[in-house]
Design goal:
about 50% helix, 66 helices
Length: about 1350
């Protein structure tokens, strides 16, 4: 037996069956604000109208002539909101037929919706408004629309239960992506902020989470984007105080392959069951558990789009309307959902939670097993929770209590039994057994106050046994328990034992004798009404009879005493009518009202005695005592009272009039009473009733009984007013104008009366015509025809019988009438009614008179239908005019294959013959016939039949003639596949590959079949025939079959290199090959795949990463690539790549490689890098190296500062590291006298006099002689400054000599026109270059080291 589904699916109504045009069933014309009403706008001719369907009475739609752009019904009441011309809004109360309020907006309202029973949400292009139904308030702006919803079609607007969170939902078509995108705006009223969300459908819900005191406010929404479908469940706002936050859920939403463009359109949350119902555009229903997000069920419920939905309150499900007009609902099947979750989803934990949360059956075995398992593990607290929470109380039994009682209690710990009871008390009320077993130890411990507390909180179920148990400790408390348990005798005993005798008059089932004696002892002045009322409340009035009779005997005339006595007589049926007529002291209205429900006739007696007109009329109407009412009215002779009862809106007027005419008037002998009554009828304009009076005159043997005109008048008036009496008048009266009366009767639909008149005057033709055309009783017409026995009558009857589908009778009548003229109609009717035997007789008779094609054709078919195959074969073998081919087709359609075989063989229709033989199981003959027919359709039908009967050899013979036709291939494949004949299908296609007419579809479909059923053969097939397959189609098949290597092979051949790379990365174990990957990656169009490939190699093939990068480097964005490796902390892995691409002088490459060299402490490589490639942040690197622990890196830092003209920082850094030569070099290169002088002063302050002398050489042209002289003199180092001074003096003397020489030349020029060149003599070298104790510094071999002789300076 198949597993029952977890949902209930119901079709409530089909709108098209209610007269709703299919073109008016759509999102723009139909609205459903709740499960109460459906509202449709439609146009009938030139009239616009609104159709309102009340789902409580769907078969009676209400149509109102209303012209509006949109109409929405209130969710709960018959109030409709209308929108006209986009801006004018109106609200009407349909029942009161009044306008409630109206407003004209400044902007067009593009969407609106009732968000509660008294509030409408309005959406314009820019904002959202709320409009309250009560009062004169105008729409109030709530929030502005978010820009992300611009251009979207708004499809829904929702709020949470407190209207603190608002949600606007829209959709828009993304043409370039071939999908519909969902856009939502979530607005917080408290914070006044909006958040845009991508989503298609959403809903709000409240749910109580385990451990939380207050329910959580949840927001759930679904989205379908290119990445797939997701359902999100989150908590909005801050959790209530004391609540733990709800753990948000995000689960995948499955969309079938055939619904690739499907997306969610509607969502409702069941507050009762805690499930989310989601409906998609393609008609799929998804059911999710709200707490866990688990998908419980998914299936298609409608082939058409469900475009509007609402919550279905009756089932706590979802109701919607699809485009065909079906109104459908889906809800949880409470009997099946828990077993379904357990067995089909294999999720017992969810089944348990679902059963507990909704108190559902279906998981009893799970609860019992879990309880026993926990009990066996001595986990008594958890076992107690399971027993307490099990649905339907299946574990709350005496056996469970006994099981806990048998568990020993450890010292200093609470017993498991008390733990169990504690959990039960927290959850609610204990049952009878639990209450007893809990109270025993509590009373033994002397903790009576706990028992009193539980009783006050109604936590215990009171019983007689519990009262007996408590009585031993506290009789008063036991009395309270007896009262709650409704134990009368124990209550009386308790009152007596506790001295509360006054509480034993009427409420504890005392004996009647005791109560009577108490009542009889009542004396003195008191309120009789109060005493009677109390006794009457308890339905014990008869106990007061002796006391009341005693008071009457004492002469008491007060109405209360006599009223009570009347009530007792009425209840005991002690001749009450006599008492009511004779007693003068009771109150007629009180006693009459008391009698109304007991004996309405006695109520009439009481009311008539007091002339209580309105009360009497009312009780007579309610109890149909119209005879009593008529007698009372006739006797009262009150015209005003007659006018009141004979008014037109009195629903009881007719039965009252009947009793007046039939009873009251016939009984009276008073002419005044008759006169007043007739006058009243005339005043009330009641001609029909006056006719009844006239009937009395005419039919009761009065002197006017035989008057012709009166008889005509009586009959004609009866025809117009009371047709039921016409037949009686026709039969009883003789002196009337019969032909005229009969004609008038027919015109007024009195056919039986007309027939009676014609029959009475023996006009047979007219009589049978009335029976056939008007009465419609063919049985009577047949009897009449037999009696007449006239051919014309039989013919007329036969046609009538034929029209009534009485085929056998009609044919018999036609034969009696000897009338074959209507043979076509006879054949049609007989065929519809399967009266073939009768039809054979008729056609045989007709063929004797007329050998027409139609008659012979139908005779052959009738032979076939009656299985007279020998007669059929004999007939077609002889000369005939029948259409044998046509008959054969009809026999084939009817499944009469033996007859069809004879017919098709007769006309040599081999195609039809082949199919017929298939149905007869003659497959070899069918194949031979198909070969003669040589028709593709015939081959198909024969092939499919052979497949169905496992005749695969013959099926293959037929299939080879089919597969060569590309259009027929898919159907053939589906036929084999749907029946599971995969091996036979593959053999067929393999055999067909060698055919001369083999086409691409055959190779393609064989490849797909290999992917499904023989994946090992697919690669070989593709390598041989990849050029002859439809690669896109085979690609999909390979992907569905997870044949990743074949998928990559096809992508490569189809030049979809991007997809090939993606497939290899997604499935490296099966699809990745190194050389193939590197060959294909260079051909991709999407550069993003380069970076995905890099990450793929990082994850799976890190040692081959540099080889890949070398291949990718021509098109890589090196900056992005380096950033990726830095973030992933894999920079060292790609050092060869960095070196190979550094010649591009890319900043990111340079900085990354420099960082690696720093980490490796390779200062030689770093210096080479920064000298060769300068595109990096020099200052940042210098600042970083400035604090490096190795002096060589700090030296490079100074070098970088120097290169960026930060001379002072470079010199200061050299000074700190005592790199004197570098300091002097950088000071000299700075061309700054200030820096050079500061360096000299530092050397002197540090007593580095040799460096002072060397710096004078290095910075010679930046230093002023006076400054040097002063510094040397002050520090007593003139020897070190003397070479500098000598050089300065030398240069000054040279300058003077040059000036003198220039002057001489100028003088000579003045004397001579020729210009002589000035020749400078070679100058001696600066003495600083060979001063005492001085040696010129020099670099060693390589840029990173110094000469050995320079180390002396560093050591100072």
């Amino acid at each position: 037996m198949s597993q029952a589904l977890p949902i209930k699916f119901q079709e409530h109504v089909q709108l098209q069956n209610l007269g709703i045009n299919a073109s008016n069933i759509g999102f723009s014309t139909l609205t459903m604000e709740s499960d109460r009403f459906i509202c449709i706008r439609e146009k009938m001719g030139e009239t616009n109208q609104v159709v309102i369907i009340d789902m409580n009475d769907p078969t009676n739609p209400v149509r109102r002539p209303i012209s509006a752009d949109s109409a929405i019904m209130n969710p709960a009441s018959k109030v409709i909101a209308l929108k006209v011309a986009g801006k004018t809004l109106q609200i009407f109360n349909i029942e009161m037929k009044s306008k409630m309020k109206a407003h004209t907006m400044t902007d067009d309202v593009i969407f609106w919706k009732w968000i509660s029973v008294n509030l409408i949400g309005l959406v314009t292009e820019t904002a959202v408004y709320h409009w309250a139904m009560e009062g004169d308030s105008q729409p109030q702006k709530v929030f502005d629309r978010h820009p992300t919803l611009a251009g979207c079609q708004i499809i829904n607007y929702r709020t949470d239960h407190k209207q603190q969170w608002l949600l606007l939902i829209g959709i828009s078509a993304q043409v370039e992506e071939n999908r519909v995108a969902g856009r939502m705006q979530l607005y917080s009223v408290e914070r006044r902020v909006s958040q845009p969300i991508e989503g298609h459908a959403a809903a709000f819900a409240t749910m109580s989470v385990d451990g939380n005191k207050e329910p959580s406010n949840l927001f759930t929404f679904a989205v379908r984007n290119p990445q797939g479908g997701k359902l999100h469940i989150i908590e909005v706002g801050q959790p209530p105080t004391g609540n733990q936050p709800y753990a948000k859920k995000a689960v995948d939403v499955f969309f079938p392959p055939e619904a690739q463009n499907d997306f969610p359109v509607a969502m409702q949350v069941s507050p009762k069951h805690g499930v989310v119902y989601m409906i998609t555009k393609y008609g799929y229903i998804h059911v999710y558990d709200l707490e866990s997000g688990v998908c419980i069920y998914m299936n298609r419920i409608s082939a058409d789009t469900i475009f509007v939905t609402a919550a279905h309150e009756a089932s706590s499900g979802i109701i919607g309307v699809n485009r065909k007009g079906q109104v459908l609902s889906v809800s949880v099947d409470e009997d099946a959902v828990v077993p379904y979750i357990t067995t089909q989803l294999n999720n017992p934990d969810l089944a348990l939670k679902f059963a507990i949360r909704n108190n559902l059956a279906g998981a009893e075995d799970l609860f019992v097993r879990r309880f026993q398992a926990l009990f066996t593990q001595s986990n008594y607290s958890e076992a107690a929770k399971v027993a307490a929470s099990a649905p339907k109380g299946i574990l709350r039994t005496p056996q469970t209590i006994q099981q806990f009682q048998q568990v020993p209690t450890a010292a200093g710990q609470t017993s498991p039994l008390l733990q169990y009871f504690s959990i039960l008390l927290d959850q609610g009320k204990l049952n009878k057994y639990e209450s007893l077993e809990l109270c025993r130890p509590v009373l033994q411990q002397g903790r009576k106050q706990l028992l009193e507390k539980w009783l006050k909180e109604e936590k215990l179920e009171c019983s007689e046994e519990l009262g007996d148990l408590v009585k031993q400790v506290d009789p008063h408390l036991a009395l309270s328990i007896y009262l709650r348990a409704n134990v009368p005798m124990k209550v009386i005993q308790g009152f007596a034992e506790t001295g509360q005798y006054q509480k034993i008059l009427l409420d504890v089932d005392c004996g009647e004798d005791v109560i009577k004696s108490l009542i009889m002892s009542v004396r003195g002045s008191f309120n009789t009404d109060e005493l009677v009322e109390e006794v009457e409340k308890r339905n014990r009035m008869k106990l007061m009879l002796p006391w009341l009779e005693m008071r009457v005997h004492e002469g008491v005339n007060e109405p209360a005493t006599h009223n009570a006595l009347a009530k007792i007589y009425i209840d005991s049926n002690n001749n009450p009518e006599r008492f009511l007529k004779e007693n003068q002291f009771y109150d007629s209205r009180i006693v009459g009202r008391y009698c109304e429900k007991r004996d309405p006739h006695l109520a009439c007696v009481a009311y008539e005695r007091g002339q209580c007109d309105q009360e009497l009329i009312k009780v007579c109407n309610e109890n149909s005592l119209f005879k009593s009412e008529a007698r009372y009215l006739v006797r009262r002779r009150d015209m005003e009272l007659w006018t009141y009862v004979l008014r037109e809106d009195n629903e009881f007027r007719r039965p009252l009039i009947d009793q007046v005419v039939q009873t009251a008037l016939s009984e009276t002998q008073d002419p005044d009473e008759i006169s007043v009554t007739v006058k009243a009828f005339m005043t009330a304009d009641l001609p029909n009733e006056l006719i009844e009076l006239l009937e009395k005159i005419v039919l009761d043997n009065s002197v006017f009984s035989d008057h012709r005109n009166l008889q005509n008048l009586l009959i004609l008036t009866a025809i117009k007013a009371d047709r039921t009496r016409v037949m009686e008048y026709i039969n009883r009266l003789d002196n009337y104008d019969a032909p005229d009366i009969a004609s008038i009767a027919i015109n007024n639909g009195l056919y039986e009366e007309a027939f009676a008149i014609f029959k009475k005057f023996e006009v047979n033709t007219s009589a049978i015509q009335v029976l056939i055309d008007h009465v419609g009783n063919l049985d009577r017409a047949y009897e009449f025809a037999e009696r007449c026995n006239e051919p014309a009558v039989w013919s007329q009857l036969a046609n009538a019988q034929l029209r009534a589908n009485m085929v056998k009778e009609a044919i018999d009548s036609f034969i009696k009438a000897d009338d074959p003229t209507t043979y076509m109609e006879v054949v049609n009717v007989a065929s519809r009614n399967d009266s073939w035997e009768d039809l054979v007789k008729y056609l045989q008779m007709a063929r004797k008179k007329a050998r027409e094609t139609f008659i012979e054709t139908e005779l052959i078919f009738a032979y076939a239908m009656t299985n007279r195959l020998s007669d059929l074969e004999e007939f077609i073998s002889g000369p005939n005019h029948a259409q044998i081919q046509q008959v054969g087709d009809r026999c084939f359609e009817k499944g009469m294959y033996d007859a069809a075989k004879l017919l098709y063989n007769n006309v040599s229709n081999f195609a039809k013959l082949a199919i017929t033989l298939v149905h007869l199981g003659e497959y070899q003959g069918a194949v031979d016939a198909a070969r003669k027919a040589n028709s593709t359709r015939t081959w198909k039908e024969v092939c499919f039949a052979c497949v169905d009967h496992n005749e695969f050899r013959l099926a293959q013979m037929c299939g080879l003639h089919i597969v060569v036709h590309a259009d027929e291939l898919e159907e053939l494949i589906n036929y084999y596949q749907n029946r599971g004949y995969f091996e036979e299908l593959i053999q067929l296609l393999e055999a067909a590959l060698g055919l001369e007419r083999a086409h691409m579809g055959m190779f393609t479909e064989l490849a797909i079949l290999y992917s499904k059923y023989k994946p090992s053969k697919m690669r070989e097939h593709l390598e041989l025939f990849w050029s002859r397959v439809n690669i896109p189609k085979v690609l999909r098949a390979a992907e569905q079959a997870h044949l990743w290597a074949e998928l990559v092979f096809l992508y490569d051949k189809y030049e979809e290199y991007d997809n090939a790379i993606t497939a290899m990365m997604a499935h490296p174990t099966e699809a990745w090959r190194e050389n193939h990957f590197k060959d294909v990656i260079t051909k991709v169009a999407n550069i993003e795949l380069y970076y995905k490939a890099v990450q793929f190699y990082l994850d799976f093939k890190p040692m081959l990463l540099n080889d890949l990068l070398v291949v990718l480097s021509p098109r890589l964005d090196h900056t992005r690539t380096v950033t990726h490796f830095v973030k992933s902390n894999h920079l060292k892995l790609v050092k060869p790549y960095l070196r190979s691409v550094q010649n591009n002088n890319n900043k990111a490459i340079n900085e990354a490689l420099n960082n690696l060299l720093i980490e490796e402490e390779d200062f030689v490589g770093l210096r080479s890098s920064i000298d060769a490639f300068d595109n990096f942040d020099n200052i940042a690197l210098a600042q970083r190296l400035e604090k490096h622990e190795l002096i060589e890196f700090r030296r490079i830092s100074a070098y970088l500062f120097k290169g960026n003209n930060r001379w002072k920082q470079a010199v200061e850094l050299c000074k700190k590291d005592r790199l004197f030569r570098d300091a002097m070099q950088y000071a000299g290169e700075s061309r700054s006298s200030e820096i050079a002088e500061e360096l000299l002063e530092w050397f002197l302050d540090s007593d580095l006099f040799e460096c002072f002398g060397a710096c004078l050489y290095q910075c010679y042209d930046l230093l002023k002689p006076d400054v040097i002289m002063e510094l040397a003199w002050r520090h007593n180092i003139m020897d070190f400054a003397m070479p500098f001074m000598i050089q300065v003096v030398r240069e000054l003397s040279i300058k003077v000599d040059k000036l003198e020489q220039s002057e001489n030349i100028r003088s000579s020029d003045e004397r001579s026109d020729q210009t002589q060149p000035i020749v400078y003599e070679p100058q001696p070298m600066l003495m600083l270059t060979a001063g005492p104790g001085m040696m010129a510094p020099s670099y060693g071999a390589g840029y990173g080291g110094y000469a050995a002789g320079y180390g002396g300076y560093a050591g100072m």
